[in-house]
Amino acid sequence: MEHKWTLxxxxxxxxxxxxxxxxNVSKAIAKVMLNRGISDRDKANQFFRISIDQLYDPFLMxxxxxAVDRIERALKNNEKIFIYxxxxxxxxxxxxxxxxxxxxxGKTVGFxxxxxxxxxxxxxxxxxxxxxxxxxxLIISVDCGITAIEEVxxxxxLGIDVIICDHHEPGNxxxxxxxxxNPKRHDCEYPFxxxxxxxxxxxxxxxxxxxxxxxxxxxxxxxxxxxxxSAADIVPLIDENRIFAKIGLERLAQSENLGIQALLDATGxxxxxxxxxxxxxxxxxxxxxxxxxxxxERAVRLLTTENIQQAxxxxxxLEKENRQRKSIDEETFKEALKIIxxxxxxxxxxxxxxxxxxxxxxxxxxxxxxxxxxxxxxxIMISTDNGIGKGSARSIPGFDLYRxxxxxxxxxxxxxxxxxxAGLKIDTSKLDAFKQKFESIAREWIEDxxxxxxxxxxxxxRLGDIDRTFLNILQHFGPFGPQNMRPVFMATKLQIMGTxxxxx
Length: 504
Fold this sequence. Notes:
Layout: E1 4-7, H1 13-23, H2 27-35, H3 41-48, H4 64-76, E2 81-85, H5 89-104, E3 110-112, H6 125-133, E4 138-142, H7 149-157, E5 161-165, E6 179-181, H8 197-211, H9 216-220, H10 223-232, H11 239-252, H12 258-267, H13 276-293, H14 297-304, H15 308-343, E7 352-357, H16 364-375, E8 379-385, E9 388-394, H17 401-406, E10 414-417, E11 421-427, H18 431-445, E12 454-457, E13 459-460, H19 468-475, E14 489-490
Parallel strand pairs: 1-12, 2-3, 2-4, 4-5, 5-6, 7-8, 13-14
Antiparallel strand pairs: 8-9, 9-11, 10-11
Helix pairs in contact: 1-2, 4-8, 5-8, 5-10, 5-14, 8-10, 10-11, 10-13, 12-15, 13-15, 14-15, 15-16
């Protein structure tokens, strides 16, 4: 796809020269730093010398004291605690970390992940009834729950308190939970709003370890789970997320977690340098696969087991199901392309909303991402069955998907998510009206040039500027991801010598 080249020129030559001299780096490197908000030596030290001690005080998050108090009471009274999470990588790593951390606190907890096909996303009444039947009196939801008003009301009526740890956009009304931890709450003054679900869960554990005066090192052992969940959820890799990713990825290759060891062995990554790319494209799809095609709780058992043979067995299952998932992906992608070719006028339409009976709900999110990559339009794929459609939506920069779906709420049975990814449920009788409404919003919000992806270029350089020192400094800008992408450079006035060869 053709890209629009945009050379970033937000800083004066004087600012570039001054930073280059202060830090003794090339002007191109200085410009990369300025583009990332690094304007002096102090900010450079903070950016490049990452420490877990740079994390914010967890008690800055609204309701944190209530959450810790309720958990303390549960531990003191030996109440049964139930961890409820989503079936994607963010949810699975959140649940796994909570199970392991409570074991550090001397407490064995139960856990539950809903069946993607039967229950769908979020807190389900099925899961709550199961918790009640097994005598649980406290549910801690991770990576879900912020819109589960009826479900939390049900839990309360059954004598179960709920603590919600979530990072998705809240609705106009919050559930009647004992505590709601979500930095995106409008009344929460926590300084960083873009944590993944696993990041919010970590903040709760951080608060608990502070409360019980436990060594932080015992909690930091779970940093690799936070790194995997955060990278897989494609959250901005800035601020606390960058701290989690940097420290967690550095620990990953030598992880003490038997499940992670088995995964790395199965994928050939053991003892290799692992970046966000390896997490997103190799590790995460395997963890995701079991939730997309079957029982996601197997992934939690993988990441919490103390038996190496069990870890290897589950890792082998993940490999097999990931291969099956890829085959289903490819077939679904081909079907989607055929529908787009027949039904979507790409010269006129600014969104893509397509549906088909019996598409596998577990893969349509992945395929929607591929459609966005190919056509660069907000895309919603909906699998229909017996009059009900379950959809996955993905977006492009500049188009707030969640806000757009809010304006279409009259046509849906439910929805949730954030700017760039969301899920929804809809009565098929309202599909046509929904498509028209969503397209009208896309037409109103998306300008012509927004349909051309941008290639943001940090600086122009001379090829002679590239040496070992230059490359070594660039590596320290990682880990790379949204809002901290790999630096891009351009060179002009070049001549081709010899015969050009395509490599890579």
